[in-house]
Each structure stands twice: as structure tokens, then as C-alpha cells.
Inverse folding.
């Protein structure tokens, strides 16, 4: 057997992660085949050496430094408390509806009559952008978005103001 | 250290307003966190700074710990991401150290550690040195598996890998560590083989 595969199987054996049948087979090979026995002992030594390594120790003031620093901070509220899944799904549905709507409006702008008889596609996409932007629906949509944006900005600034008051 | 108290109990106390209880968690995990950070930074001062940053981040995000995984796994995820960010900022080389030139460079960089190692010259110090010569990812996997007692699945969660990939990486990391021992520390380690 190739050495890398042998080593891989032996590591699994040492880690205790090999299958039952494989474990019995490797156990037998270690007992009978000198090549396997030698490699097993070599890998087992490395395994034991790694286990014997010691963890590094930070400075004596480590915990105290952290606790001093922590006294300046607060535990942040759990993300799950302020991230409402319904709102996230709502935003997703809204964006999807927007993309589909824009796609439909764009398709409606295409002059399909220009295509040749062999191809259903028009020769060129003759989209009237001015008509699209001067559309009443587009204007309403833009206005709603602007209002929503201003409301969000207002809430954000209000939150910042409250936070700075608390810090003072 | 109060061994009988579980991590979850300490967390609940901290979340309940008993901030001082967090010191127990710090004491419990400081060696693991510091060692893992050191595997990335190779400098004790940097590792201490990163480790402190990790514990502060963990404290601030404590209410996000849901208990789905072990606290240690959750904490080591923060260790991994914070250390990676630190390396990116420092633009340090994280690739495997394979040639003699880089080995010598590491030796000179690591003067702080070397001072201790000269004094100790013990087997474990030699091996820690060998682990320090591995790439950050290799050293991290070995430390998480052997010292932090994380399973392949848990290491996968920490490093964002599939358990099978972790298994392959662990195998390669051990192989590279064995090569390092044989190449650079034969005379230091020879006593082990002689035993």
C-alpha cells in the first residue's frame, strides 16, 4: 500500500475515527506487518508529543486588563431581538416585486413589430426612457421611496442623539 | 477557578448584570485563546492584544450566544475571524514555512519566544517551536484538535470548512509538522526517539 494512504488510515486509527472493520484490519496489520508497525509507532510518537505540548500563558495582568476594558462597554442587545425576520422577508418581497415590475415595464417599452419573420426578437430595443421616467407611476414610486428614506434617516439620527445623551 | 460552574451558567450571570462573572470565563479560556492568537501572530505582544480584543468582542456579543454549539466553539470562531483580520491588517505572511531562509527569518523575529526556549530546551518547547513554524491554518487546526479538544465538525464551524476538508487539512498539518521536526529539530527531539 502507498505510504500516504497508510498514514491516513493510521492517523484515523490513532484518532479513533476509523470504521470498526478498518480498525480490526489495521490492528491486525500493526501486529503482523513490520512496515505498518514501524509507521504506527512513528505516528503515535508524534501524536503523543503534540498532546504533551503546553498552552502559552499570557501576562499576569491579562484578565485584569480585559475586565477594566469591559467596564467601559455594554453587552450589545441580541441580534435576534432587533432583526425581525418578517421585516427582512418583507424587504425581500418588495425588492423582488420591484425587479419584476421593472422587467415588465421594460418589456412593454420594446417595439416588437420591428423583428424579422425568422426571429421573434426586435431589431433593436427601442425603449423610450423619457416616457419611462415621466410616467406618473414612476413619480409616485420615487416619491414614496424618498419619504421612506427620510423617515429612516430621521430614525437613525434620533437613535444616535439618544446614544450620545446616554454616554454623557 | 470554579470548575463546577458551567459556561452557560456564567454567561447567564453576566447577562443578568453580574459583569464580574466574566472574569471566570476569561480565566478559563485565556490560555487557549492566547495560544491560538500566538499561532497567528508569532509575537507575544501582538497575541496578547489580539486575545484581549477577542474577549472584549465576545463580551459585547454575549447575548448572541444561543448555546447551539459549545461556548468554546463560539469563542474560537471569534478567535479565528479576529486573528485573520489582524493578519490582513498587518499583511503578514501566512503561507507554510518551507525553506531554510524563512525558517531563519522566523528565528530572528521570534526572539522573545527564543529567550524562554533557550532556558527550557524541553521537548514541549521544541515542539511548540515546530508548531510555530507551520502556517497559521495548520497550527490552528492542530491546536484546536489536540489542545482545545474540538471535534472535526466543530473545527469546521470555526474555520468555515466541511468536516471532511478539516480531516484532510489536519492530516496534512500533522504531516508537515512531522517533516519540520525531522528537518530542524532532529537532535533536540532525538531523545524522544531514543526513549
Amino acid at each position: 500500500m502507498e505510504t500516504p494512504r497508510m498514514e491516513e488510515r493510521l492517523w484515523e486509527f490513532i484518532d479513533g475515527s476509523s470504521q470498526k472493520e478498518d480498525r480490526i484490519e489495521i490492528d491486525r496489520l500493526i501486529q503482523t506487518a513490520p512496515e505498518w508497525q514501524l509507521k504506527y509507532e512513528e505516528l503515535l510518537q508524534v501524536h503523543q508529543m503534540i498532546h504533551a505540548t503546553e498552552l502559552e500563558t499570557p501576562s499576569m495582568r491579562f484578565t485584569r486588563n480585559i475586565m477594566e476594558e469591559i467596564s467601559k462597554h455594554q453587552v450589545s442587545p441580541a441580534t435576534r431581538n432587533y432583526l425581525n425576520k418578517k421585516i427582512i422577508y418583507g424587504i425581500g418581497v418588495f425588492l423582488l416585486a420591484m425587479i419584476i415590475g421593472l422587467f415588465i415595464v421594460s418589456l412593454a417599452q420594446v417595439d416588437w413589430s420591428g423583428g424579422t419573420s425568422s426571429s421573434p426578437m426586435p431589431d433593436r430595443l427601442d425603449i423610450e426612457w423619457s416616457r419611462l421616467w415621466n410616467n406618473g407611476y414612476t413619480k409616485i414610486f420615487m416619491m414614496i421611496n424618498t419619504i421612506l428614506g427620510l423617515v429612516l434617516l430621521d430614525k437613525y439620527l434620533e437613535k444616535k442623539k439618544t446614544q450620545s445623551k446616554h454616554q454623557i | 477557578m470554579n470548575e463546577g460552574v458551567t459556561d452557560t451558567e456564567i454567561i447567564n450571570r453576566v447577562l443578568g448584570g453580574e459583569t464580574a462573572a466574566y472574569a471566570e470565563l476569561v480565566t478559563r479560556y485565556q490560555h487557549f485563546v492566547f495560544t491560538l492568537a500566538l499561532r497567528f501572530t508569532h509575537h507575544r505582544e501582538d497575541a496578547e492584544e489580539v486575545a484581549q480584543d477577542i474577549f472584549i468582542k465576545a463580551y459585547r456579543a454575549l447575548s448572541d450566544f444561543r448555546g447551539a454549539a459549545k461556548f468554546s466553539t463560539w469563542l474560537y470562531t471569534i478567535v479565528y475571524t479576529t486573528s485573520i483580520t489582524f493578519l490582513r491588517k498587518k499583511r503578514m505572511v501566512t503561507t507554510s514555512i518551507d525553506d531554510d531562509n524563512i525558517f531563519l527569518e522566523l528565528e530572528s523575529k521570534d526572539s522573545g519566544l527564543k529567550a524562554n526556549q533557550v532556558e527550557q530546551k524541553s521537548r514541549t518547547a521544541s515542539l511548540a517551536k515546530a508548531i510555530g513554524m507551520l502556517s497559521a491554518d495548520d497550527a490552528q487546526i492542530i491546536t484546536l484538535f489536540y489542545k482545545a479538544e474540538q471535534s472535526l465538525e466543530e473545527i469546521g464551524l470555526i474555520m468555515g470548512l466541511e468536516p471532511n476538508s478539516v480531516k484532510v487539512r489536519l492530516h496534512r498539518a500533522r504531516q508537515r509538522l512531522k517533516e519540520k521536526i525531522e528537518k530542524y529539530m532532529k537532535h533536540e527531539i532525538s531523545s524522544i526517539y531514543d526513549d
Notes: Chain B touches chain A through 48 residues (CB under 8 Å).
